[in-house]
Each structure stands twice: as C-alpha cells, then as structure tokens.
C-alpha cells in the first residue's frame, strides 16, 4: 500500500524535475564559492550550465555575462556552494530506517518500551517489529526481558544507532535459535549473564537474528530508496558512497535509474567479493545514468566499533583488560579477499576502527601494492584509533583515510582507551600535516545521522553542540573549515574515483550545487550546525527545494 506521504513525495519530485535545464542556463547574482584543485576557496558570483548538465562557465565578480542564454535564474544574493559528497554511508539502511520504528530520541528503557508498544499496536499485521537508532548510553539496561514487557507475542529486533549492536526479545532469540548452548560466532559476541543470552548481540553475532528476519520485497526496497534520497537531498548531499551494496540494493538503484527517479549519485561498494562479481562482473562498472551510479569496489570489515569493544587495539581496553577487540576477518582471509578484488582492478575499502586493525590494513595494502600497481586508491574507512607511529606509512602506502567526524565520542573514547591513548582518536590534523588524503562521511544507517553541517562543526572545533569541552577535545587535531569542506566534497569524490565527474564547480564537471541560507565559511560553530539547505541541484536540475524557498 502506497502511503500518502509517498504520493506527496512523487508529486513534489515530478514538479521539481520539470525544472530540468534542457539548454544553457545562467544562474546569476549569487554569493558563491567552490574549492579549487589545491583545496583553496574560490569565490564565484554565477554559473553557466550547459544542456548536458555540466558547468560551462564559472563567473566571478566583474566577469562579462553571456549575451544570450536559454534560461536565466536570479540567485537573489543567496549562498551557492558545491553539493556535499558523503564518503561513507549505508543508503538502503537509511531508507529502511524511515520505514521502521525510530528509537533515536528514546531517553530510557521505559521510553523504548512505550515506543515499541505503540508501534506494535499500530502495526498488528507485521510478523516482526523492527526498529533502530537506540543509544546504549541513554537506554541503559538492554535485555530481552525489557522488550518482552512491551511486546512478547512476536519477535522484536532493534538495532543500535551505530549499527554495531542488536537488541532482541525472547521471541526473536527463539526464532533465531539462540540459546545458552549457542557459541559466539567469529567476530561477534552474544552478551550473557550466568551463561544465558541477555538479548544483546554485538557485531557479527547480529547475523544470527538478521538472517531470520523476513526479507523486504522489491517494492519495499524501491520505497526505502525514495526515502533515503529525500533524506540525503534535504541535507545537501548530492552524492553518496554506499558501503555494503547487495545485489538487491543494486537492482533497486537500477530500477530508479531506468525510471528516471535516481536523483542522488551513488558510488557503490559491494557487500562482499561475491556481490562484487555478481553486480559488476569482471571489473568496475561504468558510470551509468549520467554519472549517477557506479560500482567501483568492495567493502571489507577488519574489526568492530570502539563503543562495543569490537575495535582491534594494540593494547587491551582500559575498561576491559582481558579484551582486545573482535576481528571480523583473519589476516590471511583479508589478504585473499583483497587480492581477489585487486586482480580485477576493483578498489578495496577496508573498514578498520582500532589502531591494531589500521596497522594490519597498512601491511596488507603494502603487500597488495607490490602486485597490483597503478592508481588503486586503497581506502581505510572509519579509523577511529590511529597510532601516530603508523601515520607515515599511511602516506607512503598512498592510502586515503575516510573518516566520520560526527561519531567523535570523547567520553566513550577515554573510557575504552584511557586518557593517555585518547590522543589517537580521529587525528585529522596529524593526517593532513603528513599529506595523507582525507575524506569525510556520515557513517549513517539512519536519517538522523546525516548531519554534514554538524560534522563540519565537529571537525573544526572538536566540540559538541553545547560547545563542550571548552577549547575542544584533543584540540590539536582540529582542522579549518576549508579543509573540512574539502573532505566533504572533493576529498570524498576523489576517494571513490569520482574526481573529474563531480565534487567541485569547475568547467566540465557536473553542476551539482546547493543554495543555502548562510555562508558556512563565515558561520560560527553553532550557526554552522543550523545551516538550512534551500535548494539542491544535481546535474543542472533542481531536485529538491525547501518549502517556502527562503
């Protein structure tokens, strides 16, 4: 059944697509900027867009305007900037999150229970109750009994905000066959009390439940993709790196491309090497739908997250001295998978959270580089903890670091690592000084995590929304706003072999840009977080607009 909201979305989309630039268009009278090839800010006052949706001319103050164009749009002095490129996200998870129970605002166990009860009552026909977004720090106790008290007659499965933990009720554990006799899976942990599963599963152990959750139908995937695109575009994200693309995801992207409803650009990285070969065949796919879709590589995971004590560390956790992390792949297995991708020129994106995982990745990429030469752009994603001693090797190995500033969590970092090792957490300035290419993304599995403006504020201040701590946490690792914007545009595009296609406003590149309500380069951190997107343009087309314009 199509929801009324989706009907309104379809009507809105049709109206926006009617603004297609079929011929030369001049967008004038703007207070604009882009980033040049050196990462420096270049001010502009207008753009000429060709019939192909590419930038035909970048205009500066005093430049002569074209004598004749087919369309003239007055920017009314608003700020124009390049579209944002999310360097690491999960597109379909963002979409499905909008279709399931949202627990991102839950503040306690009782709050979760009330929301689950209400959601179950509103959807009596659903065989499973699915939700996501809960914050372990806010919720506190997470066990099956807590959810049984809300819903006990059918399975309930709730994923955490970072996607690294799942919370099941007793019915879900029963459906998955998880009992006291069930062994921990490699790379995962079944949390237990007195040997009995509590209902909380971490990292790879989540698969025990997710594999028995009823799969979505193709039409469900199409709806989820529409929701994800809307969430991305309203936040100014014109291109997104999709980590963990399955064949089912890819088919949804292709259906949207064929129907002309693929509004964002998706740079896909396959969920595993089998999906990589199934989707693209003998090598990376070509760019499809006017540079809107490409599968160029594979996403591999070395370890889990710091918050779940899944990140592989060189020394034990400060708050769990017998624990050193959860490896998702053995070192030999990792090298074999990397080689399988490299032999067919697929790009490898390795998600490595802990400093030990980062060091292992550096060694594996160095070995890979001896066999597979040329411009490979090996990626290291997330990299929550980096040993300063390993930074020179990142530069030598030509690795691109793709990081997620908005996930900076000082309290958790100091708890897990201790104060002394906390200096290793997301060392952006050290990487920039060493000449290591840097890209930023959201890491989003839900729309509430799509916060590019908050990410820019964190990167330039290392403070939270309340301006704490004073002076910034590990302030020596702050970077300036121009460098942060470069990481959210040109850096993320380069990390996915999209440079030359989009990421900056220059002649020949796709005309992907935003009109926003303030100049982010001149805004205070609090103002930056409140930046509002007025219009989003992709390929010279207005594909999203805020209600009421300005």
Short précis:
The chain is of the alpha/beta class and 550 residues long. Helix content is 31%, strand content 23%.
Short key terms for the protein model shown above:
single chain; Urease, subunit C, domain 1; TIM Barrel; eight-stranded mixed beta sheet
Count of alpha and pi helical runs: 19
Look at the structure and give the mean pLDDT: 94
CATH topology of the domain at 302-429: TIM Barrel
What is the SS-derived class? alpha/beta
The general outline is globular
CATH H level, superfamily name of the domain at 302-429: Metal-dependent hydrolases
- CATH level 1 class label of the domain at 302-429: Alpha Beta
CATH architecture of the domain at 302-429: Alpha-Beta Barrel
Radius of gyration: 23 Å
Query: How much helix is in the residues?
Result: 25-40%
Q: Report the uncertain regions.
A: 14-22
How many strands, which pairing sense, and closed or not: the largest β-sheet? 8 strands, mixed
Beta-strand level of the residues, as a percent range?
Answer: 15-25%
Instruction: Give the N-to-C terminal Cα separation.
Output: 34 Å
Number of strands: 22
Give your account of this protein's structure.
- With 550 residues, the protein is an alpha/beta fold.
- Strands 1, 2, 3, 4, 5, 20, 21 and 22 form an eight-stranded mixed β-sheet that branches. Strands 6-13-14-15-16-17-18-19 form an eight-stranded parallel β-sheet.
- α2 (91-97) crosses α8 and α11 crosses α12.
- The chain is globular.
- The two termini are 34 Å apart.
